[in-house]
Here is the input.
Amino acid sequence: MHALQQGTTNATVRNTPTGCGLFAHAAAAVGDAILEVDGEVLASPSVYSVQVGEQEHLHPHRDALANDDTERSRWRFLNHSCDPNCWMDGRTLRARRAIAPGEQLTFDYNCTEWSMDTPFDCACGACNGSQVRGYAHLDADARARRDAHAAPHLRARAMHGHA
Ligand SMILES: [Zn+2]
Here is the structure.
């Protein structure tokens, strides 16, 4: 596993049937770093933020949102899946399995978010359409299934009984 330089371009934004998504440029092997999430850390979540610590929510750069810039902070287009091909290792998106060029990159939002700002009914196709609301709302079985990929800040908080 290698560290990735900021700004490395390994993925591109494309249209999907339901909006936009982020797609791999190149093949990736299990554990490969695909991109780093960059932006501004705030204390509360938004529809675009990814939780990187107990009170830390990384938001896309404001200018990227204001300018509708699909290059800068393009990680905000990563879609959720209940059977994802990536996971967030701190601020690094890594491949959970082999990824082919052109494949859409996804991760499980329940593995980074404690309680989501904007819950939604899942349309990933791998689940029964259950609501994605964050780790706080998962039962013990659902948490156990995510042990390998849930962010440390979620597991720590669950263990300390703030659920
Ligand atoms: Zn799903």
